Amino acid sequence: MQTQHLHIVFIWYWISVIFMPAYAFNFEADFKLITTQKVFTAGTPVTLEFTTKNNTQPQLYVSNSFGATLLTPTAIKNRIQYSIPQHIASKTGVIYWSLRTAKTPLNGQLTIVSAPAVDLIQTYLGPPSISAGANDYTMLVAIPTDAYDNPLTDGTKVAVKRQFLNTQRIDTVTIQHSISYKNIFSTLKTGRILISSSCYAFNSKEYDVNVMPAPPYDFKIRYHRHHHFADGNQITTFTTSTIKDAYGNTTSDGTYVEFFIKTKANYILKTSGTTLDGVATAKMIHPNHEDTWSVKAFVDGMAESDALVLNYKAVISDFDLTRSTDNRKITVGPLFSFMHQMIPDGLEVTLDVYRNAILIETLRKGTSEGYVNFKLNPNQFPKGNYTFKVHAASITKTLNAVALW
Q: Residue 94: which domain range?
């Protein structure tokens, strides 16, 4: 019975030997890391060296944020060496390694830091323009990198230089989370701020940011006209004072200014202009009848002017109406202006045509040499009795029960 048990044990021994994985024969191998350096500078050779008791040469698994690979060692007597590839050793961060042996797996990590030298400063600046007043700001982001495009280590000092008018200033910031930045606030005056950065004696190129005027402040308006008569022909010109912000800076060219005109009848007229050297100009034709204007200008949502009141005196107090024999031609005029001269061409005159107390048509024409002629087409206005109302310069005259032939 004991002999039978011995045979069974012997058979199982040989089966286990036949099917045992090949690496299990390395159980006698004993590896020990003898490289003590844990931190390396990017771009320098990185080598891991182990001692071994036999000629076993397992592969080394290496990984970092850029990928992973298996390395085959170089044997030197009772030692083996693994050289980390350049594309891994030149990138900052942590390298994880693992030497998997049958007896005791070995694991560890290395740290790659950037070289203390700058090959390039990546710079970002924005926005490119800010408002005056020391409240608005632009941000400069500087990322110094070494020859392998690695950001420098946190805590590295970066100098931010700026120049405005006759003033120069240097601020020192430190790299945090691989970048450095500086908020650069606007000045009280408009102009251009020149900005650059430097690190380890390496200087970036020059950048600039424009300090633009702040939102405009309230302003005044004035007007100019050749006369105060409501001839419907001359032009009244409205002009703003020099529009500035709260810090005395002239507003940017092209600032849009709207002029609102309220008439005596509570109608709203509008004209507009854009600034040049801080001054905006707009024009409006005179009314064709006596009127009073209240004028005010606005820079939408930001500033407004004082109010002006303008009076326009009527130039037409009466006019004549004449008719042809068949009443199909109605002549309005002559229309005289303030010096008893003929009214300028283009004054609008309207003719309202009524039949059976119902308005059926309104005709409009402009004056020519002081007269307006209305011709009533028989196809449009057949024979019958009509009422005509003529409007010129806010004066209305009525012709009742006019028979058209």
A: 31-113
